[in-house]
Structure formats: structure tokens, C-alpha cells
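Model the whole thing, not chain by chain.
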Amino acid sequence: MAKVKGAIVVDTVKCKGCGVCVVACPTQVIDLAKEVNGKGYHYAYMENPDACTGCSSCSIVCPDGVITVYRVKVEN
Amino acid sequence: MDIKDIIKPENLVYKKTELMTDNVLSYCPGCGHGTAHRIAMEVIEEMGLTEDTIGVAPVGCSVLAYDFMNIDMQQASHGRAPAVATGIIRTWPDKIVFTYQGDGDLAAIGTAETIHACNRGENIVIIFVNNGIYGMTGGQMAPTTLPNMKSSTSPFGRDVETMGAPLKMTELVALLPGTNFVTRHAVHSPGHVRKAKKALRKAFQNVKDKKGTQLIEIVSNCNSGWKMTPVDSNEWMVENMFPFYPLGDIKVDGKIVKELH
Ligand SMILES: Cc1ncc(C[n+]2csc(CCOP(=O)(O)OP(=O)(O)O)c2C)c(N)n1
Ligand code: SF4
Ligand code: SF4
Ligand code: SF4
């Protein structure tokens, strides 16, 4: 059966650490980093990358448009 | 599977549209303005209207919308965006013209311009971002502020007896013959973003077909003005703003589709 695997890339320089993507992700992939970026924001990152399906929910709610999403079909 | 094998150009499914510039948005973290800008630009790009569209920016937090929207833009004085848009569409009737306005801009200082443009049925899209407050100037009470809602000029809450009841501009303009499509949406969750985008697509198609005024309200947050975290402000919006400003279509194809009260 084909399965989908996804991954996101967050522009950590521009991310404002608002957390809107964290609650939008249906599979709890995202968390905010303990570290901060140059503006002092706790940027978003994939805490649980294996659970990402590449559904784009996070990217379409990100007010700053800083999430890029990739998705691939895996045959197993 | 290694993440490196997923992050490849051929697997790309979503990236920011090029109709949004690379400038860092001037909005507070989590503010719905950014999402509202982006979906409007995505719709214009997807519909192939990039070269033909002219936007009018307001006064308010989104005063710099022209720095973020990578299309032809004009900036209007406070509340005058529908009047400026009228001038543009009458000069170039084949252009696609939209305004982008906050509630202070559209429902306070710009009430006359809004109502008369809608009444004349100007062939424009009005994107109305309602966060129930004057965000830019420090969270003062707006005509749209909810009953009992605290703001910097109603610190004990909006007292309807002395301050009047909130103005539902969207329901009001739906009653005018010039409006063709009037609808209310939100952009805080993926499902809401998709629906709002669909409504914007319909509105832009309608002005392409010269059907008259389209008003898309987006109920949004002002986490700074409301003094909440972005995520809390979205929850507060769902609990408090949506019962008063219910989401959904109000007028479709020139016909009122819901009971107005
Ligand atoms: C003629 C004039 N009057 C008043 C102001 C001050 N002013 C700037 S923005 C604003 C309100 C903006 O609120 P809103 O339209 O709700 O937008 P938001 O900032 O919440 O997005 C006011 C009153 C102004 N710039 N020009
Ligand atoms: S929604 Fe966007 S800006 Fe906000 S934390 Fe997530 S990636 Fe950062
Ligand atoms: S693409 Fe979907 S699954 Fe992956 S992080 Fe974003 S919301 Fe979560
Ligand atoms: S003040 Fe309010 S409306 Fe303005 S950018 Fe901040 S959160 Fe958004």
C-alpha cells in the first residue's frame, strides 16, 4: 500500500513563533524551539518529523507564510 | 525515509506565492492580516489575474499592504479606499480592483464611502478584516467592538447603553441593491482558510463577470490589542466573535440567503 511522507521547512529567520501552526497540525509534528532567532522568537521546527504527512495545514495558516511543504508517496 | 529524500523540488506541495514579496510582514506574531493577504494573492495568481489587478490599501495596521502584495497597489486615505477604487474601476473598467480594509477604516471613518460604493454597485471586491478594534493606534474601541468587550477606550467593557451597539456592516450592505456577493469568513484554521479562499475566488470571478460589489468579511484576531497570545486570541475569537458575527454567506448572486436580524 502506498503511504505518504511529508516534511516541512520553516524559514527560522522570519518565523515569529506565534504557535498557530503548532495547533493546526493534525499529527502534532511541530513545536516551538527553546532557542530563539535573531528577533527573539522561539521559531517552529519539526519535533516529531516521522508523523508529518505533508498535508500543508500548517503552511496555509502560517500568517507569515514561512513554511514550505514537501510530500512523497512511499511504496512498501 | 530520510528527510533529505523528502525535501526535494519534485516533492514540493506548498510554498509562499510570489505575489507576496519577501519583505518581513509588519504584523504582530499570529495576526490574521498576514494570512488574509496571502490567500488573496494566491487567488489572484491562480486565476491568472496578476497583470490586471489593482489593490487599494487602507490606513490601519495593513497600511503597508502595498509592500507585501506584489501587484499594482494604491494607498488611500483613512476610510477612502472604496472611493479610490471607484475612481480606478471607472477609469479602467476592465481591470480587477479590490480594497483591503480594517473595521476602523471600513466601518468608522469610511462608513459613507463603504455604503455608497456598495449602493452604487461598483464592480470591486472589498476585503474587510474585522478584528473588533483599532489595532494600529493602540486597541481603541471600534464600531465593531463587541458588547462588554474591553478596549483601551472602553476599559470596563463596551456599554451598549452609552456607546451604542456594534455595527454589522456586512449585514447592512447586503441589503443594498448594488451588492452581489456578501459573505463572512475566518482564517485561523486550515478549514477556514480553505473556505475563505473559495469565497475570494468566487468574488474575483464575479467582478471579472462585472456583477457588482463583492464584500468578503474576514473575522480576525488582534492579539496585541486584545492582550492575549495568538493562539488564545483565536480561541477567544471563536467563542466570542463568531456568535455575534456568524460565518457564512449572507448574499449570493444578488439574493439574500440568510435571515437578517
Ligand atoms: C484621518 C485619520 N484619522 C485617524 C487616523 C488614526 N488611525 C490610524 S489607523 C486607525 C484605525 C485602524 O483600525 P482598523 O481599520 O480596525 O485596522 P487595524 O489596525 O485594526 O487592522 C486610526 C483611527 C488616521 N491615520 N487618519
Ligand atoms: S505559524 Fe508561521 S510564524 Fe507562526 S510559529 Fe508557525 S511557522 Fe512560525
Ligand atoms: S504538513 Fe501537515 S502533518 Fe506536516 S507539519 Fe504541517 S500540518 Fe503537520
Ligand atoms: S496590532 Fe493587532 S491588527 Fe495590528 S498587526 Fe498587531 S495583532 Fe494585527
